[in-house]
Amino acid sequence: QDVLRASNLGSPVTLSEPLNGAAKAYLEAARRLEGEDLPVVVPFERKGFLDRLLGRRAA
């Protein structure tokens, strides 16, 4: 959602929404390209209330 909004405004998501997950990923990728050694963080998808209640697993 934030990436689409930033694209429509013509502003990079890294500037308009710096705390967004996509912005963080871009900045971490840039830091890795500069040679910085960063741990790899694998994002996870939160399960909704009904998914937890009914025992459904995220795909």
How would the blueprint of this fold be written?
Elements: H1 2-9, H2 13-16, H3 21-33, H4 49-54
How are helices and strands ordered from N to C? Answer: HHHH
Which structural class is indicated by helix and strand composition? Answer: mainly alpha
Low-pLDDT ranges: none
Helix content: 40-55%
The radius of gyration is: 16 Å
Q: Count the E strands.
A: 0
Shape verdict: flat
Strand residue percentage: under 5%
Main sheet attributes: strand count, strand direction, barrel closure = none
Count the DSSP helices: 4
Query: Structurally, how many domains make up the residues?
Result: 1
Taking all residues together, what is the mean pLDDT?
A: 82
What distance lies between the first and last C-alpha atoms, to the nearest angstrom?
20 Å
